[in-house]
Amino acid sequence: MGSIFRAVIIGAPGSGKGTVSSRIKSIFGLKHLSSGDLLRSQIMKGSEVGQEAKKYIDEGHLVPNHVMIELILKELEEIGPPGYLLDGFPRTQYQAEILNDEHLIDAALCLHVPFDEIVSRIKDRWLHLPSGRIYNLSFNPPKVPGRDDVTGEELVQRDDDKPESVLKRLEVYAANTRPVVDFYRQKGTLIEFHGRETNKIWPHVEKFLESVIPPQSQKNES
Ligand code: G5P
Ligand code: MG
């Protein structure tokens, strides 16, 4: 069995974690595991976890640690080479410590995007819920307005993308997730990227990953 590369991607809501992750997945073949997508799929199924999580998500609060830890660690058991990219987890210092007890993370990629840019992006975000494919009316609009490029199915806006939830999510990020950035800085695995545009940040992310994992020829699935 080949080796497994373990990465996490950290950044404020709307900083481009999902957008960058889908590029990493298609070029480097890492399995992209988004905690938000996992939760939204539980909500869509109407599961007990989904019903519990929805109350927190819609208000912009974090879902309790124990719920997230159970959900994510179970998924990680299944993943083989070339490895994984965790998007949206860990989001509290406690989650980072529990993850660290189970899996040693090779790289923590951190996106720093100014908050005014984020607020303007999020209001134009549309999503294909079943796949997690992300669109933006100005940055990457769908080919047909309101429809997913691959399936032609309807796009939706996230319930937590309403302005009052976005402000709460930014506050929660500053209070709870910045300590996670410090956690990886102390471990010596933090790599930081600053900018207003994903297309300017991306070449630096790609260059870094090329230096640590070989590119795979992968189909761009989502
Ligand atoms: P999520 O789903 O993890 P957030 O809040 O961390 O949600 P989000 O909103 O998914 O992060 P993102 O993935 O960082 O943002 O950003 P994105 O979707 O790629 O890009 C945002 C928009 O900008 C898109 O429309 C994209 O097309 C566009 N865009 C990208 N780049 C550019 C650019 O250069 N220019 C322009 N103009 N546009 C661009 O978590 C949701 C909730 O789940 C719970 C919490 O309640 C959380 O609030 N949760 C957890 N709770 C506890 N612990 C955890 N670990 C949890 N994980 C999730
Ligand atoms: Mg996302």
Automatic annotation (TrEMBL):
<feature type="binding site">
    <location>
        <position position="95"/>
    </location>
    <ligand>
        <name>AMP</name>
    </ligand>
</feature>
<dbReference type="InterPro" id="IPR007862">
    <property type="entry name" value="Adenylate_kinase_lid-dom"/>
</dbReference>
<dbReference type="GO" id="GO:0005525">
    <property type="term" value="F:GTP binding"/>
</dbReference>
<feature type="binding site">
    <location>
        <position position="40"/>
    </location>
    <ligand>
        <name>AMP</name>
    </ligand>
</feature>
<feature type="binding site">
    <location>
        <begin position="134"/>
        <end position="135"/>
    </location>
    <ligand>
        <name>GTP</name>
    </ligand>
</feature>
<feature type="binding site">
    <location>
        <begin position="88"/>
        <end position="91"/>
    </location>
    <ligand>
        <name>AMP</name>
    </ligand>
</feature>
<dbReference type="GO" id="GO:0005524">
    <property type="term" value="F:ATP binding"/>
</dbReference>
<feature type="binding site">
    <location>
        <position position="198"/>
    </location>
    <ligand>
        <name>GTP</name>
    </ligand>
</feature>
<keyword id="KW-0418">Kinase</keyword>
<dbReference type="InterPro" id="IPR027417">
    <property type="entry name" value="P-loop_NTPase"/>
</dbReference>
<dbReference type="GO" id="GO:0046899">
    <property type="term" value="F:nucleoside triphosphate adenylate kinase activity"/>
</dbReference>
<feature type="binding site">
    <location>
        <position position="169"/>
    </location>
    <ligand>
        <name>AMP</name>
    </ligand>
</feature>
<dbReference type="GO" id="GO:0005759">
    <property type="term" value="C:mitochondrial matrix"/>
</dbReference>
<comment type="subunit">
    <text>Monomer.</text>
</comment>
<dbReference type="InterPro" id="IPR033690">
    <property type="entry name" value="Adenylat_kinase_CS"/>
</dbReference>
<feature type="region of interest" description="NMPbind">
    <location>
        <begin position="34"/>
        <end position="63"/>
    </location>
</feature>
<feature type="binding site">
    <location>
        <begin position="61"/>
        <end position="63"/>
    </location>
    <ligand>
        <name>AMP</name>
    </ligand>
</feature>
<comment type="similarity">
    <text>Belongs to the adenylate kinase family. AK3 subfamily.</text>
</comment>
<feature type="binding site">
    <location>
        <position position="35"/>
    </location>
    <ligand>
        <name>AMP</name>
    </ligand>
</feature>
<dbReference type="GO" id="GO:0006172">
    <property type="term" value="P:ADP biosynthetic process"/>
</dbReference>
<dbReference type="InterPro" id="IPR006259">
    <property type="entry name" value="Adenyl_kin_sub"/>
</dbReference>
<feature type="binding site">
    <location>
        <begin position="14"/>
        <end position="19"/>
    </location>
    <ligand>
        <name>GTP</name>
    </ligand>
</feature>
<protein>
    <recommendedName>
        <fullName>GTP:AMP phosphotransferase, mitochondrial</fullName>
        <ecNumber>2.7.4.10</ecNumber>
    </recommendedName>
</protein>
<dbReference type="GO" id="GO:0004017">
    <property type="term" value="F:AMP kinase activity"/>
</dbReference>
<comment type="function">
    <text>Involved in maintaining the homeostasis of cellular nucleotides by catalyzing the interconversion of nucleoside phosphates. Has GTP:AMP phosphotransferase and ITP:AMP phosphotransferase activities.</text>
</comment>
<keyword id="KW-0808">Transferase</keyword>
<dbReference type="InterPro" id="IPR028586">
    <property type="entry name" value="AK3/Ak4_mitochondrial"/>
</dbReference>
<dbReference type="Pfam" id="PF00406">
    <property type="entry name" value="ADK"/>
</dbReference>
<dbReference type="Pfam" id="PF05191">
    <property type="entry name" value="ADK_lid"/>
</dbReference>
<keyword id="KW-0547">Nucleotide-binding</keyword>
<dbReference type="GO" id="GO:0046039">
    <property type="term" value="P:GTP metabolic process"/>
</dbReference>
<keyword id="KW-0496">Mitochondrion</keyword>
<dbReference type="InterPro" id="IPR000850">
    <property type="entry name" value="Adenylat/UMP-CMP_kin"/>
</dbReference>
<keyword id="KW-0342">GTP-binding</keyword>
<feature type="binding site">
    <location>
        <position position="158"/>
    </location>
    <ligand>
        <name>AMP</name>
    </ligand>
</feature>
<dbReference type="GO" id="GO:0046041">
    <property type="term" value="P:ITP metabolic process"/>
</dbReference>
<feature type="binding site">
    <location>
        <position position="125"/>
    </location>
    <ligand>
        <name>GTP</name>
    </ligand>
</feature>
<feature type="domain" description="Adenylate kinase active site lid">
    <location>
        <begin position="125"/>
        <end position="160"/>
    </location>
</feature>
<dbReference type="GO" id="GO:0046033">
    <property type="term" value="P:AMP metabolic process"/>
</dbReference>
<feature type="region of interest" description="LID">
    <location>
        <begin position="124"/>
        <end position="161"/>
    </location>
</feature>
<dbReference type="InterPro" id="IPR036193">
    <property type="entry name" value="ADK_active_lid_dom_sf"/>
</dbReference>
